[in-house]
Amino acid sequence: MLTLAIETSCDDTSVAVVEKPNIVLSNVVASQIATHIKYGGVVPEIASRMHIEAIEFCVKEALNQANKMLKDIDFISVTQGPGLVGSLLVGVSFAKALSVATDIPVVGVNHMRGHIASCYISNHELKPPYIALVISGGHTYIMDVEDYNTMHKMGETRDDATGESYDKVARVLGIGYPGGAELESLAEKGRDNLNFPRIYLEKDSFDFSFSGLKTAVINYINTETMKGHVLNREDIAKSFQSAVIDVIVEKVIRAAKLRGRKQIAISGGVSNNKAIRNAIAEAGEKSGIEVFYPEPKYTGDNAAMIGVEGFLAYERAGESPINFVADPNMGL
Ligand code: ZN
Fold first, then answer.
1. For the chain, which residues score pLDDT lower than 70?
2. What pLDDT does 134 receive?
């Protein structure tokens, strides 16, 4: 069984051909980052226009690379939400038009469930029930995945997403957008000696708040600059990252213990951060919990993960009615 998967929720146009069970035959990603860099972040109107320009080429290229034709495709998977409404509309409209023109059924897919499903591509031992941690530029969630269809949200960010806080601190350190990767490599050379706050919120809470930490880092930088001190960027990066990691590790391990889960799967763009991966893996090992993450190419937004979740969504509920709409605030 084959699905043609389309992902346009933010600033990457991605199309993949995925074969059951979770074999990725192609995964084409047209990144818009070079354009958005000039503005220091994603500009929604530019993003939708660029999706329109790229989508047809991406579909042809994904089919070519997979050595398949449209007639081989059993159903289309498309990101329905959450995401930027204009961006989502491009993918959903294209998928629906293609479905009407070819009689291939279409299924709307939840982007967040897609991130979680990205872990299935190369981790065949990962099976529900487990705890999923999704950390990216737009999302931060702890989920209890009971089975392939049922998941419960245990916690989420109350302000900035993890990746967003990385980008904001990076900006103050003079690193261009997106700054996560460079901040991570600065941190590798630094020391955790600045005592930035660990914000755990209420004792039992699995929610996150990164804006207080971000403010503490920015205040420190401003005060030091005013005093005429030379900033140690490596130490700032390391101290910031350590504060993020301590909180994430405490919450995700506590979530697994509370629910009696023996596996944790990390996904989303920030799951590519080695310091975060290693810290969770190390803490997991001490508690007898196995930790999984996707290959780097499936951590950012990509259509392969939408195809993998597409199979689950298609089995769960069948094809979507042709009048289904993009849902920028789609819940899990
Ligand atoms: Zn995403």
1. none
2. 97
d(CA 61, CA 298): 18
pLDDT of 39 reads 84
Question: Counting Cβ atoms within 10 Å, is residue 230 exposed (0-12), middle (13-18) or buried (19+)?
Answer: exposed
Measured in angstroms, how far is the CA atom of residue 81 from the centroid of ligand 1? 10
Angle between helices 274-286 and 233-259 (to 10 degrees): 40
Ligand 1: centre distance to CA 229 (Å): 38
Residues in the 5 Å CB sphere of ion ligand 1: 136, 301
| pLDDT at position 38 | 82
Closest among 221, 327, 307 to 23, alpha carbons compared: 307
Residue with tokens 């050595």: 67
143: CA distance to ligand 1 center in Å? 15
Residue 131 Cα to ligand 1 middle (Å) = 18
